[in-house]
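This part of the workshop introduces the protein records we will be handling. The structure tokens are whole numbers drawn from a learned vocabulary of backbone shapes. The record below serves as our worked example for the rest of this section.

===
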Amino acid sequence: MKRLIEKLFGTSPFGPLVEHTKKVHECVKLVRPLMEACIREDHDEIHRLQDLVCKLEYEADQVKHAIREQLPRQYMMPVDRADLEHYLHSIDDVADYVQDFSVVLLIRKTKIHPELVREFLEFVDQITSVSDLLMTAAEELGALAEASFKGAEAQLILQRVGGLGEAEWKADRLQRKVSTHIYQLEQQLDPITISFYEKMLRSLSGIANAAENSGDILRQMIVKG
């Protein structure tokens, strides 16, 4: 990891920013396997995946800290350093919510009611789609920096980021759908299980919200560039 960071910092912080986003996106891609393990009550797999989330989050933190240490010594950049810090913080929130979700599954062996399985998986898939869109936009950061955050590259990222709002809105709708169904089943569920369902939904929703916020910051950097 140290050697990778040293290699990435050969020219600018934008390569490491992409690497940081990739690490966080790897965390998000574990949400579906975590949900599937919860559904089939495979608690050993939940534990393994939670360890992997921790590992990826740690690696993302190493890149993040390196970026922050290097920023004061960087040459003039096409964007404000405060905006880069804001973007880093927002991307970090995405990983934190994935970690929260994995811990919720780990600390209690919560069974997913059979009638909720399909809707939980739909919600998880939509959240992953939000992160996919952010990752697709973030991968262009290097080319965007070379273009001084202007021109065709800027328009390309603005177009890609533009889909984040709709994707996050769809995630919100699916969250409400699951929540409504949970309370339709409340006579069959104990209060602690309902509470843990709510914790799961909050952390999952947080992933999508933080990803959308990160996209908004990218948009602001381009508009100000």
User: Anything to note?
Assistant: The domain at 2-224 is CATH 1.20.58.220 (Methane Monooxygenase Hydroxylase; Chain G, domain 1).
